[in-house]
Amino acid sequence: MEIKLIQATAGDVLVLHDVQTKAFQPLLEKYLDYETNPANEPINRLFEKIQYSSFFKIMVEQKCVGGIRVVRKNTSYWISPIFILPEYQGKGIAQQAIQQAEKLFTKFNTWELQTILQEQGNCYLYEKMGYERTDFKQKVNEKMTLIGYKKTKQQ
Question: Any residues with CB less than 8 A from the CB of 98 and at least 6 apart, and which?
Fold first, then answer.
């Protein structure tokens, strides 16, 4: 399944908010992390992210099936967040989106992200793509712990 990353604009906020909510709702219901889950993010906060960072729609044919945001922090890039509609998960879309993002942003060699320790599929994806666990570990609640991943690309 071929994907395209398209820079999001203010006009995409309704579509991206809907896709983000649908993508993260199952995790919200599973982990009850009401403070941190993007399914609970107010639309105005997403609007700000689109305006002030590199936020892309993940497109399959003409349909927005997800999003990926790349943020520069010091001398590394952070993926925060990446999301795919549930019916499109498990099809290699996130992997393609990350690979394309890594090709778009080349000033720094270090990429970082955080994910849920209990979501083994996510951990497997990032490890398969060359990301390694960092020392970062934050217990959000009794059900959920965030962990960090980092990848340093060769020059």
Answer: 68, 79, 82, 129
Does pTM surpass 0.90?
Answer: yes
Decide: helix, strand or coil at residue 97.
helix
CB atoms within 10 A of CB 118: 15
- Residue 155 is predicted with a pLDDT of 60
State the Cα angle at 81 between 76 and 84, rounded to 5°: 135
CATH number for the 3-152 domain, one of 1.20.1250.20, 1.10.287.130, 3.30.360.10, 3.40.630.30? 3.40.630.30
* 3-class secondary structure per residue, 25-64: HHHHHHHCCCCCCHHHCCHHHHHHHHHHCEEEEEEECCEE
> Rounded CA gap, 143 and 154, in Å?
36
Phi and psi dihedrals of 100, rounded to 5? -70, -40
The residue type of 16 is L
- What are 62-118's pLDDT values in tens digits? 999 999 999 999 999 999 999 999 999 999 999 999 999 999 999 999 999 999 999
